[in-house]
Amino acid sequence: MKKTALTLSISLLCFTPIITQAENTTSQTVINQQPQVAGYYQHQVGNTQITTLLDGTNFMSPTLFKDIPTEQVQEILKKYHVDQAKGVQTSVNAFLVNTGNKLVLVDSGTADCFGAHLGSVMKNLKASGYQPEQVNTILLTHLHPDHSCGVSKNGVANYPNATIYVSENEADYWLNPKQLQKIPKDQQAKYTGTVPKIKAALAPYQTKKQFKTFKLGDTIDGFEVISTQGHTPGHFSYKLKTSDEDVIFIGDIVHSHTVQFDRPETAIDYDIDPKAAVQTRLKQFADYAKHGQTIAAPHLPFPGIGHIYSADEKSYQWIPVHFKD
Ligand SMILES: [Zn+2]
């Protein structure tokens, strides 16, 4: 037996080099790689099912982090093995919450406001087993187009039976024509470029009186509102009590699970009031690290659900949920 094996391996060694390049290519089977499938993720907290709906992934420049030396950003990104070939990857997630008797969508993705690499919330909502007609309520953390555009398409409501809620301050900032004069000159172009996208998305709901505002102290379908302004003037997070842990839908109080967890005092260029955004993050992170609420975040890696941990109450770690079937 030994002899046969030896003879075979020698003959293979002898034969391999004389196969020509052409023969070699034609005889090789190419196994095609398959596309990624992750598009929705079901997560159960007590009696509540949260479905993360992926809108897509985007890339941002590491220079968008403010008041931190470039070398320090690079050091942190390297520590977390962040692939920077196309920039720093960030997810865009929306959350569909089944409370048992209400279906609530928190944020809605970009639809076609940012190009074809994003805009998959609707496709993923249908794939997850739910239907857009079932959605009763849409809670927007703020009106930036990556959160608000997804509510409609070409002037038609994507969720015909849903009422949209946003804070009074946020609606006033983006929808009141008197705001423009209060905005610093160097930020006006960005503002006037953004407003039409927001208005177009909300219009079908306003026409049907399915657009409402709230203020601090209000509760909507069991969701308590938490003022987390800074990223935008009327930015709010939402807290839902379940039969298990509280869940906080934090919105854009954080954009990076690396730099802004390691150095939470780091603002990002997207913040309208960077100082207030940092104060909000410091306050909320301290609370979440202390009390262990479940966190759902639109711009943390898909599915954007997990917990926040701190060993020293200065820097933080993102602890993502583990896959459960
Ligand atoms: Zn955002």
UniProtKB/TrEMBL annotation:
<dbReference type="InterPro" id="IPR051013">
    <property type="entry name" value="MBL_superfamily_lactonases"/>
</dbReference>
<protein>
    <submittedName>
        <fullName>MBL fold metallo-hydrolase</fullName>
    </submittedName>
</protein>
<feature type="domain" description="Metallo-beta-lactamase">
    <location>
        <begin position="91"/>
        <end position="299"/>
    </location>
</feature>
<dbReference type="InterPro" id="IPR036866">
    <property type="entry name" value="RibonucZ/Hydroxyglut_hydro"/>
</dbReference>
<keyword id="KW-0862">Zinc</keyword>
<keyword id="KW-0378">Hydrolase</keyword>
<keyword id="KW-0732">Signal</keyword>
<feature type="signal peptide">
    <location>
        <begin position="1"/>
        <end position="22"/>
    </location>
</feature>
<keyword id="KW-0479">Metal-binding</keyword>
<dbReference type="GO" id="GO:0046872">
    <property type="term" value="F:metal ion binding"/>
</dbReference>
<comment type="similarity">
    <text>Belongs to the metallo-beta-lactamase superfamily.</text>
</comment>
<dbReference type="InterPro" id="IPR001279">
    <property type="entry name" value="Metallo-B-lactamas"/>
</dbReference>
<dbReference type="Pfam" id="PF00753">
    <property type="entry name" value="Lactamase_B"/>
</dbReference>
<dbReference type="GO" id="GO:0016787">
    <property type="term" value="F:hydrolase activity"/>
</dbReference>
